[in-house]
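Submission sheet (multi-component)
Chains listed below:
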Amino acid sequence: MATAAAQQTASTQAYGAQGAIGDTTAYQSVFDAAVAADERIEPRDWMPDAYRATLVRQIAQHAHSEIIGMQPEANWITRAPSLRRKAILMAKVQDEAGHGLYLYSAAETLGTGRDELLDKLHSGRQKYSSIFNYPTLTWADVGAIGWLVDGAAITNQVPLCRCSYGPYARAMVRICKEESFHQRQGYELLLALSKGTPEQHAMAQDAVDRWWWPSLMMFGPPDDESAHSAQSMAWKIKRHSNDELRQRFVDICVPQAESLGLTLPDPDLRWNEERGHHDFGPIDWTEFREVLKGNGPCNEQRITQRRKAHDEGAWVREAAAAHAAKHIGETGATRA
Amino acid sequence: MSTPETTAAPTASPIPRAAAIALGDDALVLSHRLGEWAGHAPVLEEEVALANIALDLLGQARVLLSLAGDEDELAYLREERAFRNLQLVEQPNGDFAHTIVRQLYFSTYQHLLYAELAAGGGPFAPLAAKAVKEVAYHRDHAEQWTLRLGDGTEESHARMLRACEALWRFTGELFQPVEGVEVDGKRMETAWLASVGEILRRATLSVPEGPRSGAWAAGAGRQGLHTESFGRMLAEMQHLHRSHPGASW
Amino acid sequence: MTNTDWPLWEVFVRSRRGLSHTHAGSLHAPDAELALRNARDLYTRRGEGVSIWVVPSSAITASSPDEKDPFFEPSADKPYRHPTFYEIPEGVKHL
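Outcome: structure written.
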């Protein structure tokens, strides 16, 4: 992709990274002071290479997750059991495409074009959230994804609205605002099933049983094993530790499950008066690592579909570019 | 019982049920087809665009079907022969060119239809007044893409020609009279041919010369006769709902 | 030719009449007209706007952070440009 470089040049005016000409230490201290003062770092500010690389990696992974995350839910659009649910689900999957776009935009401000990022996704060099490598086997899975997966994502994302990198923080503000309906619709969907026929109730319980543990894994490995956490916290890209957020999520979910009339599949789950938190059972990190490595139930399927959509769309993107090249300067749009 | 969030304002004249079902089925079926694109669009921006159109159509379908009865009963519990949609809208997505041409043919028709219904002041006027704005955008979307794909690359041009030809024979049905829809079909057809013809010419595509109806299936969608792929589409759409009789969702 | 020829556009949205256009984000499009439509679909699907501008990202000239001091600091020591600089006797109204 020779064009990533071209794109970077094209966007230099607005976003171009400032090269560290001269004294890097002086730049570094300005950067450190800004982060310490809780100021935002903006695209054209000098920033350490590692900070830039960490952000690109994290924002790209986040964007990829939105795009791959469309698949398990889109799987049920054509089978949604009522027209109301169908409209909600379509709007939700559409939002995920939109959120992917906001995030790719944020990544582009760091000088990495979307094509380069998509290329890395398609070739397996960048990851997306492992949770989307689990299958949606029944309609209730749409509800469980909304309640648990989006719930975990929101717990992770709300602190990102205060992330030190301005464009990422602004994208997250927009995303969190729009996502507030995602979790609620999932909860409402499960509630309808839980209160429905015995078959529907069983369907809901089965979905929660399958999605609970993978949702807890979404917060990433335990703090003492997390490779990037400490540096990200220092840079204020990350504001809370994995374990802290995971605990917060468990504490939120327990009473919500009760109101749903569903149980969480953890015999060790109980309130700990002393800690003021719920204790919960051990997470199967072997499964987590296996899915991460590519051995989850849907890894192959998800990436194959993504590549196929991209490849089959190539002629469309080429045609539009060719048309634009032929008709340059003919636009009818006006200033308003 | 399910009711859409937006219901049309009550009007003095009674709703012609057959017409509400025919127009509602058009919107329902096309929305379903567009929904199949989710996760498969050629570029991310187009995921958002196609979903917007699908959601507009689903909204129209819910209002129209609710005028005729319970929207979910009508969508999920009718047999194939009871659907009154045009055969055009049930055609599979094909490649992006097929989808765009289907959009161009249908949204041009729907725009003319709703503009006339909105102006006519009949029972569909309130719905049509809102929908005509949505449909104007759908038509514009189809036009923009027809121009780019028709006059893009050699490959996109060839794909568009194929799509225009393949779907042409489903366009005669658009102007068959529908009981309870008070529009001048002949005048609409002339306007449709002019509008579509002009866009195809600007897109360097030729207007197909073949017949505008099949030898056997002329006008059949509105009478409940559909094409092969429609049964499969309905099976998928209705399966879950029918597996749990009487359940609420 | 590859798909990467779709350039980047910056999107500005007027959220309602009486307000100015504000930067909303960016997107890719092959040309200005599709950029405008993509912006409509992406940035105003919850009724966030009444008017949209799209600008090729490459057309924006930005001030450099290196010029921050010469650009912006000189304006910080001109307090007489602000109304609070002036002392007015108590009781004087409409001033």
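Remark: The two ends of chain C are 65 Å apart (CA to CA).
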